Task: structure prediction
Amino acid sequence: MHNNFIYHHNTKKKLLILLSIGAIAILCHKKTIALHIEHLWTHLWISHVYFMGIALIGVFFFALQYATQAGWAVGIQRIPETFGYWLWVGGITGLLIFIGGHHSIFHWTHDYLYDVQDIRYDPIIAGKKSYLNLPFFTCRTIIYSILWIGLFVKMRQLSIQADFVKDRIKMYRKIKKYAIIFIICFAITSSTVAWDWILSIDTHWFSTLFGWYVFASWLVAGLSMITFCVTLLKEKGYLTIVNTNHLHDLGKYLFAFSIFWAYLWFSQFLLIYYANIPEETIYFIERMKVSPYRFLFFSNIIINFLFPFLALMKQNAKKYTAFLKIVSCVLLIGHWLDFYLMISPSLLKETGAINTLSLGIPIIYFVAFLHLFFKQLAKKPIIPIQHPLLQESKYYHN
Amino acid sequence: MYTQRSETKTVQHYLLGIFRDESDALRVVKRLRKNHIMIHEVYSPYPIHGLDQLLGYKKSRLPMAAFFFGLLGFFLALVMQYYMLGIDWPMNIGGKDFTPLPTFIPVTFELTVLFAALGMVGIFFLISHLYPFKKPLLFDEGITDDKIVVVINLYENKQPKILLTKMLTSFYDRT
Result:
């Protein structure tokens, strides 16, 4: 009844074409890499954070359905679930990027900042040493990764086992237990990891809602990726269980959380704008006044807020695969841009205009992400055939 | 044994079919629609699944009204603030421009929501003919309790009343 996903040769070919586009784009910029290695590390770090977030939101979305006993998403559950495999790849490559480029990405990793004798001594950064130091930072990142990967692997194992065992209710309850643990962990770590991975790049600057802001951006990116993959698979004839009601819900998710993202973005901006304290406004001056970012800064709001707000407002717009596919693609690009604007202006200053290098790396990440996704999706049934709420999802009506 | 499953009543120029059971009411509505009889309204103490589709209601245009009310609130809020702080009484707040757009956004947002919400409620009352001092036409007291009432406007339909009454009351257990 439910045919499993087959990773066709055709799909592979398409991904390969995309991969070569990315590779050519990077090769076009050979000179910059040779001259400024920071560019490479910065763009790698942006894509790393972005795709790690999408994978995490996938697992979070999956866990949320179990924790809230929601039935509607059972038909599409395997898609966010499979995103979790990226946590392995992302975790390891992230660690490699960190080892290779920590001096380029994180200013606070330089020893001279903490040396009172040195002329480059920075009392503010030195004051943060108890939290921002290399061993503690590395430990934190590794602990987070182990927590996420461990809980994901456990939930995925149980979810696959649940396709075969007799007592499916017991399995459901077991996954629910781990899902709740994951959500609690993620609630804390999503904030702290945002401080570590992104906020600490602007070591002098801080924002108290930064964790939520990053979470919101990740959430919209993750939901766009889920929607994109669902529409992609639906167009190929898989996921027969998914109808307009499910798509409508995904559309509502995108619509609502795009507004939520804008709310947080604006809350952060308005307070800093109004208080007008130089050490805080520097963050926005770097983004609004510096020439390569000025245009991107304003298009960020238009793409991520105005566009989905107006495009998804009508009920019919949320119901059709073709339309949702376009919107989710735009939002995927938009939130990559959001992360670009979080990281690049602080590191590359005026030289950080979008070029072929900064476009090539996310393309390669995207291809790698999709390849892993398709490969893992093909291994297991595309629909959890024994899920106790599968019938509810099938006859779901909103 | 014969049980009375529905009764009819005439109020002014309206013919009512009063039902205890929702499935009976649904069956009758289906029958009336099939014979192209205009149904004035169906009253029910609780929502009945599938009734909206059977009555062939068009999609509500209320969201559209909400959007335009919101748009009105959005512009009114901006104009108000520009007039107050830009023209009528400019104030120097923290050395900023007299009319700084970002600080206008929270008020604009609130007024957009207020206008959309109140406008939607207002227009809903208007199209439902609910306004002050209106004497409500209560077709049957059972509407407020446990009865489902199908109302037919006799002026709108050419069929004889006897035929309509029969359609509202006769049930074949086979169907």
